[in-house]
Amino acid sequence: MKLTRRNLLILSSAGVAATAMGSLPAFASLTDDAIAELTGGAALGEGAITLTAPEIAENGNTVPIEVSAPGAVAITLFADGNPVPNVATFTFGPLSASRSASTRIRLATTQNVVAIAKMEDGSFQKASANVKVTIGGCGG
Amino acid sequence: MASGVKPRVKVPKTAAAGEAITIKTLISHKMESGQRKDDDGNVIPRSIINRFTADFNGQNVIDVTLEPAISTNPYFQFEAIVPESGEFKFTWYDDDGDVYDTSKKIEVS
User: Judging by beta carbons within 10 Å of its beta carbon (0-12, 13-18, 19+), is residue B65 exposed, middle or buried?
Assistant: First the structure.
Protein backbone atom coordinates (compact mmCIF):
# COMPACT_ATOMS: atom_id res chain seq x y z
CA MET A 1 0.00 0.00 0.00
CA LYS A 2 1.43 3.37 -1.01
CA LEU A 3 1.51 6.01 1.67
CA THR A 4 -0.86 8.45 0.05
CA ARG A 5 -2.75 10.93 2.16
CA ARG A 6 -5.94 8.91 1.79
CA ASN A 7 -4.31 5.69 2.97
CA LEU A 8 -2.76 7.46 5.93
CA LEU A 9 -6.18 8.74 6.96
CA ILE A 10 -7.60 5.22 6.78
CA LEU A 11 -4.75 3.85 8.85
CA SER A 12 -5.00 6.52 11.51
CA SER A 13 -8.76 6.10 11.90
CA ALA A 14 -8.26 2.36 12.32
CA GLY A 15 -5.71 3.13 15.02
CA VAL A 16 -8.16 5.36 16.85
CA ALA A 17 -10.76 2.59 16.71
CA ALA A 18 -8.32 0.10 18.22
CA THR A 19 -7.47 2.52 21.02
CA ALA A 20 -11.14 3.11 21.67
CA MET A 21 -11.54 -0.57 22.48
CA GLY A 22 -9.79 0.30 25.72
CA SER A 23 -7.07 -2.33 25.40
CA LEU A 24 -3.36 -2.34 24.73
CA PRO A 25 -2.90 -3.55 21.15
CA ALA A 26 0.49 -5.14 21.82
CA PHE A 27 -0.88 -7.36 24.56
CA ALA A 28 -4.28 -7.79 22.92
CA SER A 29 -2.70 -9.65 20.03
CA LEU A 30 -1.04 -12.01 22.51
CA THR A 31 -4.48 -12.72 23.92
CA ASP A 32 -5.95 -13.24 20.45
CA ASP A 33 -3.15 -15.70 19.72
CA ALA A 34 -3.84 -17.56 22.95
CA ILE A 35 -7.57 -17.67 22.21
CA ALA A 36 -6.95 -18.88 18.66
CA GLU A 37 -4.70 -21.61 20.03
CA LEU A 38 -7.45 -22.70 22.42
CA THR A 39 -10.32 -22.65 19.95
CA GLY A 40 -8.41 -23.66 16.83
CA GLY A 41 -9.83 -20.58 15.11
CA ALA A 42 -13.46 -21.64 15.63
CA ALA A 43 -16.16 -18.98 15.68
CA LEU A 44 -16.98 -17.58 19.11
CA GLY A 45 -20.62 -17.40 20.11
CA GLU A 46 -21.94 -15.08 22.80
CA GLY A 47 -24.73 -15.11 25.32
CA ALA A 48 -24.42 -18.50 27.00
CA ILE A 49 -21.58 -17.36 29.23
CA THR A 50 -21.59 -14.76 31.96
CA LEU A 51 -18.49 -13.03 33.25
CA THR A 52 -18.88 -10.97 36.39
CA ALA A 53 -16.10 -8.52 37.17
CA PRO A 54 -15.97 -5.22 39.00
CA GLU A 55 -16.06 -2.11 36.81
CA ILE A 56 -13.35 -0.48 38.90
CA ALA A 57 -10.80 -2.44 40.89
CA GLU A 58 -8.88 -0.36 43.39
CA ASN A 59 -6.25 -3.00 43.95
CA GLY A 60 -5.06 -4.96 40.93
CA ASN A 61 -3.60 -7.62 43.20
CA THR A 62 -6.94 -9.17 44.04
CA VAL A 63 -9.76 -8.63 41.60
CA PRO A 64 -12.78 -10.87 42.22
CA ILE A 65 -13.96 -12.58 39.04
CA GLU A 66 -16.89 -14.91 38.54
CA VAL A 67 -17.68 -16.96 35.43
CA SER A 68 -20.70 -19.06 34.70
CA ALA A 69 -21.59 -20.97 31.54
CA PRO A 70 -24.31 -23.65 31.78
CA GLY A 71 -23.33 -26.63 29.67
CA ALA A 72 -19.64 -25.78 29.56
CA VAL A 73 -16.92 -28.40 29.75
CA ALA A 74 -14.18 -25.91 30.50
CA ILE A 75 -13.78 -22.16 30.95
CA THR A 76 -10.51 -20.35 30.32
CA LEU A 77 -9.81 -16.83 31.54
CA PHE A 78 -7.53 -14.33 29.82
CA ALA A 79 -6.39 -10.84 30.80
CA ASP A 80 -5.24 -8.94 27.73
CA GLY A 81 -3.19 -6.30 29.55
CA ASN A 82 -1.08 -8.66 31.62
CA PRO A 83 2.47 -9.69 30.67
CA VAL A 84 1.13 -13.23 30.26
CA PRO A 85 -2.50 -13.29 29.08
CA ASN A 86 -3.47 -16.69 30.51
CA VAL A 87 -5.09 -16.50 33.93
CA ALA A 88 -6.72 -19.84 34.70
CA THR A 89 -8.59 -22.76 33.19
CA PHE A 90 -11.51 -24.40 34.99
CA THR A 91 -12.31 -27.92 33.80
CA PHE A 92 -15.60 -29.23 35.13
CA GLY A 93 -15.99 -32.85 36.16
CA PRO A 94 -19.10 -35.06 36.25
CA LEU A 95 -20.07 -33.90 39.76
CA SER A 96 -19.88 -30.20 39.04
CA ALA A 97 -23.30 -28.61 39.59
CA SER A 98 -23.67 -25.21 37.93
CA ARG A 99 -20.77 -24.68 35.56
CA SER A 100 -19.55 -21.68 37.46
CA ALA A 101 -16.55 -20.68 39.53
CA SER A 102 -15.20 -17.59 41.19
CA THR A 103 -11.68 -16.66 42.10
CA ARG A 104 -9.42 -13.66 42.56
CA ILE A 105 -6.94 -12.58 39.94
CA ARG A 106 -4.11 -10.09 39.37
CA LEU A 107 -4.45 -7.34 36.80
CA ALA A 108 -1.42 -5.25 35.83
CA THR A 109 -3.41 -2.33 34.48
CA THR A 110 -6.80 -1.27 33.15
CA GLN A 111 -7.75 -3.91 30.61
CA ASN A 112 -10.25 -6.43 29.32
CA VAL A 113 -10.82 -9.74 31.02
CA VAL A 114 -11.95 -12.38 28.54
CA ALA A 115 -13.60 -15.70 29.32
CA ILE A 116 -13.83 -18.47 26.72
CA ALA A 117 -16.08 -21.44 27.47
CA LYS A 118 -15.82 -24.74 25.65
CA MET A 119 -19.31 -26.19 25.45
CA GLU A 120 -20.37 -29.84 25.47
CA ASP A 121 -21.05 -29.79 21.72
CA GLY A 122 -17.53 -28.53 21.01
CA SER A 123 -18.49 -24.94 20.25
CA PHE A 124 -17.02 -21.94 22.03
CA GLN A 125 -18.60 -19.02 23.83
CA LYS A 126 -16.93 -15.75 24.70
CA ALA A 127 -17.58 -13.00 27.20
CA SER A 128 -15.44 -10.06 28.14
CA ALA A 129 -15.46 -7.26 30.68
CA ASN A 130 -13.42 -4.10 30.98
CA VAL A 131 -11.91 -3.55 34.41
CA LYS A 132 -10.40 -0.23 35.42
CA VAL A 133 -7.45 -0.79 37.74
CA THR A 134 -6.27 1.96 40.08
CA ILE A 135 -3.14 0.25 41.42
CA GLY A 136 -1.55 -2.42 39.22
CA GLY A 137 -0.97 -5.89 40.57
CA CYS A 138 2.24 -7.11 39.01
CA GLY A 139 4.68 -5.33 41.30
CA GLY A 140 6.84 -4.30 38.33
CA MET B 1 7.53 -22.27 49.55
CA ALA B 2 6.87 -25.29 51.58
CA SER B 3 6.39 -23.47 54.85
CA GLY B 4 3.23 -21.81 56.07
CA VAL B 5 0.99 -23.35 53.45
CA LYS B 6 -2.37 -23.96 55.04
CA PRO B 7 -5.40 -25.13 53.07
CA ARG B 8 -8.81 -24.05 54.30
CA VAL B 9 -12.04 -25.43 52.93
CA LYS B 10 -15.68 -24.73 53.67
CA VAL B 11 -18.13 -27.54 52.88
CA PRO B 12 -21.60 -27.93 54.38
CA LYS B 13 -21.82 -30.83 56.88
CA THR B 14 -25.10 -32.16 55.53
CA ALA B 15 -26.97 -31.99 52.24
CA ALA B 16 -29.90 -33.57 50.43
CA ALA B 17 -29.11 -36.17 47.77
CA GLY B 18 -28.52 -34.58 44.38
CA GLU B 19 -28.44 -31.10 45.86
CA ALA B 20 -25.99 -28.53 44.52
CA ILE B 21 -23.78 -27.32 47.32
CA THR B 22 -21.37 -24.41 47.35
CA ILE B 23 -17.75 -25.06 48.26
CA LYS B 24 -15.20 -22.42 49.14
CA THR B 25 -11.49 -23.10 49.25
CA LEU B 26 -8.52 -20.98 50.18
CA ILE B 27 -4.88 -21.87 50.55
CA SER B 28 -2.23 -19.58 51.95
CA HIS B 29 0.51 -19.24 49.36
CA LYS B 30 2.43 -16.20 48.19
CA MET B 31 2.06 -17.14 44.48
CA GLU B 32 5.29 -15.45 43.39
CA SER B 33 4.56 -14.51 39.77
CA GLY B 34 8.07 -14.45 38.36
CA GLN B 35 7.46 -10.85 37.20
CA ARG B 36 8.63 -9.04 40.33
CA LYS B 37 12.14 -7.85 41.02
CA ASP B 38 13.94 -7.59 44.34
CA ASP B 39 15.77 -4.50 45.59
CA ASP B 40 18.87 -5.36 43.54
CA GLY B 41 16.88 -5.65 40.32
CA ASN B 42 17.05 -9.42 40.10
CA VAL B 43 13.92 -11.22 39.02
CA ILE B 44 12.36 -13.21 41.86
CA PRO B 45 11.81 -16.70 40.43
CA ARG B 46 8.29 -17.92 39.85
CA SER B 47 6.82 -20.07 42.61
CA ILE B 48 3.12 -20.73 42.39
CA ILE B 49 0.52 -23.42 42.81
CA ASN B 50 -0.15 -24.55 39.26
CA ARG B 51 -3.06 -26.94 39.68
CA PHE B 52 -6.02 -27.45 41.99
CA THR B 53 -8.46 -30.35 41.93
CA ALA B 54 -11.56 -31.26 43.89
CA ASP B 55 -12.94 -34.81 43.88
CA PHE B 56 -15.88 -36.46 45.59
CA ASN B 57 -15.63 -40.23 46.24
CA GLY B 58 -13.07 -40.45 43.45
CA GLN B 59 -15.15 -38.55 40.90
CA ASN B 60 -13.90 -35.21 39.68
CA VAL B 61 -15.76 -32.00 40.48
CA ILE B 62 -13.41 -29.34 39.17
CA ASP B 63 -9.85 -29.23 37.89
CA VAL B 64 -8.25 -25.80 37.73
CA THR B 65 -5.05 -24.81 35.95
CA LEU B 66 -3.53 -21.81 37.67
CA GLU B 67 -1.27 -19.23 36.01
CA PRO B 68 0.78 -16.53 37.75
CA ALA B 69 -2.14 -14.11 37.32
CA ILE B 70 -3.98 -15.81 40.18
CA SER B 71 -3.80 -13.73 43.35
CA THR B 72 -1.84 -14.49 46.50
CA ASN B 73 -3.69 -17.03 48.66
CA PRO B 74 -5.66 -18.60 45.79
CA TYR B 75 -9.38 -18.66 46.48
CA PHE B 76 -11.97 -20.68 44.60
CA GLN B 77 -15.69 -20.98 44.94
CA PHE B 78 -17.67 -23.52 42.95
CA GLU B 79 -20.68 -25.84 43.15
CA ALA B 80 -20.85 -29.61 43.39
CA ILE B 81 -23.56 -32.27 43.31
CA VAL B 82 -23.49 -34.86 46.10
CA PRO B 83 -25.26 -38.10 45.13
CA GLU B 84 -24.47 -39.89 48.42
CA SER B 85 -22.58 -39.48 51.68
CA GLY B 86 -18.87 -39.38 51.23
CA GLU B 87 -15.73 -37.38 51.29
CA PHE B 88 -14.44 -34.47 49.30
CA LYS B 89 -10.73 -34.47 48.58
CA PHE B 90 -9.01 -31.24 47.66
CA THR B 91 -5.50 -31.21 46.23
CA TRP B 92 -3.13 -28.38 45.38
CA TYR B 93 0.03 -28.91 43.31
CA ASP B 94 3.00 -26.60 43.92
CA ASP B 95 5.63 -25.63 41.32
CA ASP B 96 8.31 -27.09 43.59
CA GLY B 97 6.68 -30.53 43.52
CA ASP B 98 4.91 -30.31 46.86
CA VAL B 99 1.34 -31.51 47.03
CA TYR B 100 -1.05 -30.19 49.66
CA ASP B 101 -4.33 -31.91 50.34
CA THR B 102 -7.23 -31.85 52.72
CA SER B 103 -10.53 -33.67 52.86
CA LYS B 104 -14.03 -33.03 54.22
CA LYS B 105 -16.83 -35.46 54.95
CA ILE B 106 -20.43 -34.74 54.10
CA GLU B 107 -23.59 -36.55 55.25
CA VAL B 108 -26.38 -36.94 52.72
CA SER B 109 -29.82 -37.51 54.15
Answer: middle
Check: CATH 3.30.930.10 for B6-108? no
- Whole-number Å distance between alpha carbons of A14 and A23: 14
Task: Kindly determine whether residue A61 and residue B71, on different chains, have CB atoms separated by under 8 Å.
Answer: yes
Query: Do A62 and B71 count as a contact with CB atoms less than 8 A apart?
Result: yes
What are the backbone dihedrals phi and psi of residue A106, each rounded to the nearest 5 degrees, phi first? Answer: -100, 135
Q: How many CA atoms lie within 13 A of B75 on its CB side?
A: 16
What is the value of ipTM here, to two decimals? 0.89
Tens of pLDDT, residues B34-80: 888 889 989 999 999 999 999 999 999 999 999 999 999 999 999 99
**Cα dist from B81 to A103, A129, B63, whole Å:** 20, 29, 15
> H or E stretch including A19?
helix A5-20
- Domain positions in chain B: 6-108
Rounded to two decimals, the pTM is 0.81
